[in-house]
Amino acid sequence: MRVLITGSADGLGQMAARLLVAKGHRVVLHGRNAARAQQALDAVPGAETAVSGDLSSLREMADVAGQVNRLGHFDSIIHNAAVGYRERQRIETVDGLPHVFAINTLAPYVLTALIDAPQRLVYLSSGLHRDGDASLHDLEWRTRPWSGMAAYADSKLHDVVLAFAVARRWPHVLSNALEPGWVATKMGGAGAPDDLDAAPRTQVWLATGDDAAARVSGQYFYHLKPRHTHPAAHDAGVQDRLLDACERLSGIPLRRRA
After folding, report:
1. pLDDT per residue as tens digits for the range 34-81
2. In this predicted model, what pLDDT tens digit does every residue of 10-22 receive, in sequence order?
3. Residue 46 half-sphere exposure, CB side, CA atoms within 13 Å?
């Protein structure tokens, strides 16, 4: 199978890429600039190629999507790129959006909308998504007092909502979300207690697994097993409001069917 992994210059994206290559799959990597894309290729021998683009920028999100489409069809896309919860103030992107929201929420939405639909979509979330604000109030953090932890939790809830919304709107695509656990990556920190070896395996399984348990849609997983999620993630009204907000902020609609 042919798989694209965003944010695969290091961390869980790189680990998943190595597992996929070892299993004989064709893998395309992504880094936020040309140097990081080359770093990704150097770290994953056997990868097919890498695309580059800063996913905090709407223009570069669209450019990444264009690069991917020019490469041809993909069987699966793993939306792995993200930033963490340690931003102590609201960092504004070139488009006037919060940095965390742009990369963690809007980028997977825009890439989903613009890249030719694969058979499978996998969105990385976090157990912290259960603390996210399902009201979707003030997504741009213009009136709320800034909290890096809350912004991260919100964005990881958005990723689950997006996965389930796509599953509902695109019935011929398998779209799921997962939490890899709190593991000792650059984002997670050296003291993270969960199993690092297990952390990339669920996304690899959802992207390529042949067993019936992996060929599902609109579900949430942890270490290859279904896990409960924020109840609002299943709410079609919440899903549609998030899609509407992402369309408003990006100017890019998500088509009704893949």
Report:
1. 999 999 999 999 999 999 999 999 999 999 999 999 999 999 999 999
2. 999 999 999 999 9
3. 13
CB 95 within 8 Å of CB 57: yes
From the list 133, 173, 163, the residue with the least C-alpha distance to 234 is 163
CA 146 to chain centre: 23
Q: 228-238 as b/e, with b when 16 or more CB fall inside 10 Å?
A: ebbebbeeeeb
**Average pLDDT for 170-195:** 73
Amino acid at 182: W
Residue 49, helix vs strand vs coil = strand
Greatest alpha-carbon span in the chain: 49
Angle between helices 107-114 and 148-169 (to 10 degrees): 20
Environment class of 32 (CB within 10 Å of its CB; exposed 0-12, middle 13-18, buried 19+): buried
Distances (CA, A) of 204 to 3, 68, 69, 192, 198: 9, 19, 21, 21, 11
Give the 3-state secondary structure of residue 176: strand
Q: Which residues are catalytic?
A: 152, 156
Confidence check: pLDDT of 182 > 90: no
